[in-house]
Fold:
Amino acid sequence: MSKLDSKIPEGPLEQKWEKYKSSVALVNPANKRSLEVIVVGSGLAGASAASSLAEMGYKVKVFCFQDSARRAHSIAAQGGINAAKNYQNDGDSTYRLFYDTIKGGDYRAREANVYRLASVSANIIDQCVAMGVPLAREYGGMLSNRSFGGTQVQRTFYAAGQTGQQLLLGAYSGLQRQVGLGTVEMFARHEMLEVVNIEGKCRGIIARDLISGKLERHFGHAVLLCTGGYGNVFYLSTNAMGSNVTAAWKAHKKGAFFGNPCFTQIHPTCIPVSGDHQSKLTLMSESLRNDGRIWVPKKQGDTRKANEIPEDERDYYLERRYPAFGNLVPRDVASRAAKERCDAGYGVGNSKMAVYLDYKAAIERYGKTQAKKLNISNPTAEQLRVFGKQVVEEKYGNLFEMYEQITGENPYEVPMRIYPAVHYTMGGLWVDYNLMTTVPGLYALGEANFSDHGANRLGASALMQGLADGYFVIPYTIGAYLSKEISVKAISTDHEAFVNAEKDAQAIIDKLFAIKGTKSVDHFHKRLGKIMWDKCGMARNDKGLKEAITEIRALREEFWKDVRVPGTANDFNPELEKAGRVADFIELGELMCMDALNRSESCGGHFREESQTEEGEAMRKDEEFAYVAAWENKGNHTYEMHKEELKFEAIKIAARSYK
Amino acid sequence: MSHGNMNLTLKIWRQKNDKETGKLVTYPVKDISPDMSFLEMFDVLNEELINKGEEPIAFDHDCREGICGMCSMFINGRPHGPKRGVTTCQLHMRSFKNGDTIVVEPWRAAAFPVIKDLTVDRSAFDRIIAKGGFISVNTGNAQDANNIPIPKPDADASFEAAACIGCGACVATCKNSSAMLFVSAKISQLALLPQGRVEATTRVKNMVAQMDEEGFGNCTNTGACEIECPKGISLENIARMNREYFVANIKS
Structure:
């Protein structure tokens, strides 16, 4: 029998969550006051979970490695947040959002979780607006929507190109309110280095105070990991420099299975790499594909400037290949199509590893609409351009500025150059319907878990999931566990399990300093990133993945012999922080390649070259691979895979077509 | 490893911790590419220092796309350097000339003590927000979002104030180390929305009281904060906060 019990409630799909909510065990207010919950990470999932649980009466401790909870990387999300509000009267519904998410995820997500996500999505918008999040509005005072990839309705709410910032600052304000009330204790500049399990249940963490360097022990009746994704395993990604897998990986080594680690999202619209000094990649929001048109020259190796290439010599390849969705195909499809054109020699820019994202047509179109609004009957071409620019600036101004800042080119005048980059990881800690990992009392929320996006996440769904998990799911599901823990008194952190976990964390730090090698942490991180990008990136194959595994193992050996960590442990030491994180990324990288090797089908962001149609479209193998691969860490770099079969009851599993 | 052809002299503030005194230390850097960001130039320097067996320079940074507000370098006497509307991570070396000498210091304000080198402690901002930078609505209490129509100009003005990233450049550049721009941005964001009016009186009083307690100075309307703010937060917000504060004190 499988070790995995997804604990999906019985009953018809649309009634599961309602029934669950009305039957789940509750914890009375007096008991909540003596139950302690640890939340690691303060992004959308962490901040919303922490504030909600504190409001309910639990004693909450929150940890983040940044200097303030407000800096978590959710802040960088640009485009928007989906919700099935149907404010546009365009036929949206909970079912459609559910359907789009399952289809967008290429039928590799769990139906019950996704339906729940879709059904709470509308509450998120209500909650955020009530908290003062200034989402974009129309002149009538109502909320505005835009469309996003992989859907045919307008259900995306936004705040210019800073939606993540506004939502995160909203969640942060709720969190700070609880800090002020004394119900949340905040530990900024702290990094979780171990989970502490006692008698098979998670009971706390070991965290390092990043300023003093001291290791601390913290008890909790339950621990929530809201620690985001692991895209930085590729070194170059759109993630923040500090984003890491350490918390999730330490949990994995202490019994939490890792689900679908190879499912990585490569985002199609990022600013291309400019040189070997590059430390991170910058995303240009997917919302730009709403109005921008993507093209390359029809001629291979065309050296003309973009504006010199006439209309009929341009290949709008997404519109050509996918007429129904055009430039708004899902991210995985758009990314692969860009790679295909560049690999075939049609790329643009100095590196030839880029395609154009062009706003000329949009500026003209908006110019005409605006002229009509202003009652100008015979506008000049210049007027149209100015009006059009104004509209585009209002919608995307900050993104255009950012592009100009980084590249030194003005995107109102010349098309932007874009190329895919690692952006999000659909894989993560395996969780059941309660968001609990395979370790009782240890939960994973938001990007840190694997549950809702299958093999590919749709745009504007990450913010939705983070806040759904934190505001509307965990407050209910944690009760199912904590209601049975009410008689458990806070365990002393002198317990041997805490002592041993602290020793384990200390041993790794001591080991890193003892090496006194010759190469910096970044040196190893860059090499790991190159292996991963070349062999476990946008296209993967059997041979490459096997090579990657061998190379990563060798890199791991070399790291532990030759890394140089300067400074001391009892000090503010960013190099030490990085070293610990890179050590974990190296181990994760190997598991990702193993998972990618095992899954010899193409699905979503995971493209196996061996499994494609004659037209080069991804080919799923549902008979063999309609399951979640949940990897158990058996110690000493060995892993055992467990399968959670995916059952599709509400949706008929079908080839995914955007044509 | 060669990157480009700019050679620069950096004078960087080094300080072991909050107890010891610091000093400017000179570092030459070579072969810098104009396409590098200012922080990538620091990565190159740190890599060199590590290879030489020296301790790298500690500096705060995270998203490197100008939104998290973590990076905080005082460059040639200006927070986030010479360009307007950008954070340090968005500043590119093409904004400097080959041969330049660049002085880099941490944010300087009594309320932002130095932790190490260029890293400072900005937790005072969190404590101010905890005193009132929110709307007291518990999860699950909300009505339908479109039940509160908000005129677009108000929503837009609120959004503009909400664009603050809490980096502290306003404090760093102010001769009084005033946090009025930061505090007023949050107060404005919420004061402009009907949802935020309910607690407007207590909010402004509590936040201003905490701001004073943290040791930030007062505002003398020099306007340096607005000039140096990477997100263009307007001085109007300070005027609005003063008005809110005045009204709040008359009311009670």
User: Anything to note?
Assistant: The radius of gyration of chain B is 20 Å. Chain B touches chain A through 81 residues (CB under 8 Å). The domain at 6-116 of chain B is CATH 3.10.20.30 (Ubiquitin-like (UB roll)).
